[in-house]
Every structure is written in C-alpha cells, then in structure tokens.
Automatic annotation (TrEMBL):
Domain of life: Eukaryota
Biological process terms in GO annotation: protoporphyrinogen IX biosynthetic process
Protein name per UniProt: Glutamyl-tRNA reductase
Domain Glutamyl-tRNA reductase N-terminal per the UniProt entry, residue ranges: 98-248
Organism: Populus trichocarpa
UniProt GO molecular function: glutamyl-tRNA reductase activity; NADP binding
Enzyme Commission no: 1.2.1.70
Catalytic activity field: (S)-4-amino-5-oxopentanoate + tRNA(Glu) + NADP(+) = L-glutamyl-tRNA(Glu) + NADPH + H(+)
Enzyme kind, highest EC tier: oxidoreductase
Amino acid sequence: MAAAFGFATSIATSTPSNPNLRPLAVSCPQLQTFYKPLNNRRASALNQSLRVRCESVSQNLNSIDKEELKRSSAMALAQLKASAIDRYTKEKSSIIVIGLNVHTAPVDVREKLAIQEAQWPQAIRELCALNHIEEAAVLSTCNRIEVYVVALSQHRGVKEVTEWMSKISGVSVSELCQHRFMLYNKDATRHLFEVASGLNSIVLGEGQILAQVKQVKKLGQGVDGFNKKIGGLFEHAIITGKRVRTETNISSGSVSVSSAAVELALMKLPESSYATTRVLVIGAGKMGKLVIKHLAAKGCKEMVVVNRTEEKVALIREELKDIQIIYKPLSEMMACAAEADVIFTSTASDTPLFLKEHAQTLPVDTEMGRRLFIDISVPRNVGPCVSDLETAEVYNVDDLKDIVAANKEDRLRKAMEAQIIISEELEHFEAWKDSLEAVPTIKKLRAYLERIRASELDKCLSKMGDITDKQKKAIYDLSMGMMKKFLHGPMQHLRCDGRSDCQKPEEMLEIMHAVNRMFDLETEIISDTVRTKMERIKK
C-alpha cells in the first residue's frame, strides 16, 4: 500500500516526488492527506479539466447583472441607516468634524468653501443624502468652514464629506487634504466647545463666534438631518460658551474680529488716532455695524458708510447719535473711496469690490502716503492684487493675528480656566449621549404600559355603563396619573440630561436588562458601546 501511494501531510506544503503532480489550492480532506502519482497523460487531462471548470466559474460571475448588484448595495445601505442598533451605537456611528480654519488654511482657500447662512439648511440636506451620513451641521464664518456629522463609518464618512466639500467649492480633494483637519467623537466635541468659548478664534474670547454657533442651531431646527445628537452637541456648546464667558474674564480686552480690525487700522495710522482720519465703511450688516461701533469707541467722530440701502445705516445712526454717520449708495462707492484714508469692507459680495485697476486710480493723501484697506469679508472684497500697489496697504482676516500678540500670559491663564469648564461640560455631554442608549427601552416600556392602561380603561368604562363625560375624564386622568407614577422610577434611572447624577455605563446596562426582563419588552438592547467603555475603564 505504501508502495502504491505516496504519503503526505499536506499537498499545499509538501513537494511531491512526481514532477507531473502540482499542488492544488482546494479544500479537500482526501487531497490534503494522500496523493497518487500520475503519469503525463493523466496529469495533462486533470489540468485541462481544472482549466475548463475555472473558465466556467469566471463566465458565470461575469454574467451577473451589475444593476442588480447596485440595487442590492443601495438596499443594504438603506437597511444600515434604518437599523436601531447603528442609530444608537457610537462604535458604528461617530461624531466627526472636518474643516478648514484660519490656523490650517489661507484665506484664498477658505473663501472658496464659504457657505452663506441662508444655504446652511440646504447643505445639511445634501450632506445627509450621502450614504454614510446620518446627521449634519455646517459652521461657516470668515475664519472657518467646519462640517459636523454623525457618520455610520468614520473612513467612508470622511471620504464622502471631503468629496462633497470639493464638489461645492471647486477645490481638489488633494488640496483639501493638505489644509483640512479631522477630529472624532470626544475630540470633535471638545473642539466645538472651544470654538464656542472663543478659544479657537484669532482674538481670544471674541463674542461673535458664540452668536454664530447659536445661529447654526437656530437655522438647523426643523431641518431633516439636524437631529438628536447634532442638536444636542450644539446645545451643549452654547451652554459651554456662556459658562466660559460668565465665569472667566476671557472677553475682557479681547473682542470680535471687527474690533481687532479697528485696532489694527489704528496701529497703522501715523498718529494712532481716528480724530482727523477720513474713514469709509462699506457694508452695514452685522460685521459692518460692529466696525462702526468700535470706531466710535476708539474716538472716530465722523465716517462715511456705503450700503445698498439707507435703512440699516439710519438704524445705526439712531443708536450712535453722537457720531456723524454719512450714508452713500453703492453707486458712489469709488468716489467715496477716493476721499478716504482708511477703508473697511464687510459685504457678502461674491466678487471683489476693489481690484488693482480700481485702486491705482484713487488719489492718495500726501501725509499718509498710502491708503489702508482693512478687508474682513470672506470671500474677500479687496483683491490680493491691490497689495502690489505702493499706494495701497491691504490687510485681511488672516492679518488680524498680529493684534493678539499682547498679554500672552494673561491669555493663557484665561484659557486654562476655560479648559476646566470645557472638561466639565464635555463630561455632561458624554453622559447625555450615553443616555441615548436607553431610548429603545424607554419607548418600549412606555408603549407597554400605555397598552395596559388603554385596555384596562376600556374594560372599566364598559362595566360602568352610562356615565357623564366629566366622569369619563376623571377616570381617564386617573389612569394617566397612575401610569406616569409607574414610569417615574424607571425613567429617572434610564434618562440623563448630563447635569443630574447619571448612572455609570455598567449600572445603566444592568437597569436596562432588568427593565426588559421584568416587563418582557423584547427590546434589542444597544449595549456594545457600554461594554466597550467598561472594558476601557478596567484597562
């Protein structure tokens, strides 16, 4: 027998003595244990048979309908998005921020990505139409463009959002990758809290960014895609920003970008005074109004304001009655610019208001020697080519970094105080987010008790016969009151607003299991995340 057959432990690892027999990459117990020497004719026939079978399998695979595969993939993704497990499990859905800001990207890149406030709801809808994005929000200011999402997959979510940003801006994906930053889960949350607190701004503690974060929440409400997690994230960011400003002195000496613009211009003036300086402000919107107010605070008693309409300028004039504010329409902008020493621009124009050919025709005051353009708009109102002129000095939002050079030690101290508050609020948010794990159990328990209440109420009313509506209401109110009392205890332990004494992850898991067992709710408990946290704590 041993002479007739060659013994081998595995064809895949043994070298047969017969050169005509080649190892076969197939899973077969008989072939993995024995082989029989083959002559040349039999080996050739076997090889031919294998080639025919391989070609047959290949043809069958190629014949599969590609459209059917696409439809199957789309259905699978739809099921993934609708799955309760994925919706409430942070291991599979992550909070991600992808963005560019003044610290990572120059203004000529950021301005291409700028999204006007009116377009934020549409941006949310477009982002949530992507395959792996559940929720979204957009924060777009002169210093940053940041996209916050809840993604089913980190890698695929980042890829889809980056491609979307490239599509709306015309900036290539490769260029975006050079300037973007990405943060996940706790890091993303901390970043937004720091942004809302003014710690990520050019001017430490500036107040305007908190108003812009509030605007994100305001415009997002009611938009499909600005849901529980993203809405809660921005709500906690607003609370954090308010606490930081109330409990520290972070705003003292450090104000908005518009204030820094006024201070920068003041530093560049020959006598560091607005007393005799001819000032022109183009744009009377939010930023323009702040520029005018800060100019008044710095001693500017007279200025010309160019705006599309006079209505907003008249309101500002009423507010600053001691300041002479002269309104001019946009059609007279160039004539007003010719008579100004300092020009502040803050409009939402998509195209530059001043180009090189415009600026070089403007006469220059002999004492100043050049004209100052302070452009705090994104996209820029003053073309970068204007800075090539010897008679013009151009500054944009990126140049405002120079303003915050003073008081570095005090700035760091305030930032450290703010970080303590941010850490506290971060823990509150994480506790609130953990409580979302209990949502399926809460819904099932409420529905279970409601069915019992409604059933018992019907039985009671049917036995009582003819009673008045007032009596029916009293019995109904009694049943509702009892149900609320029954729910109070379990709900108190399952819910968490992030500020009361919340359960630890392992405790919440035990309570969820206990409630499901006691009431036979058959709820699919989303416990993977909680278990993961418990394992991390033990390590």
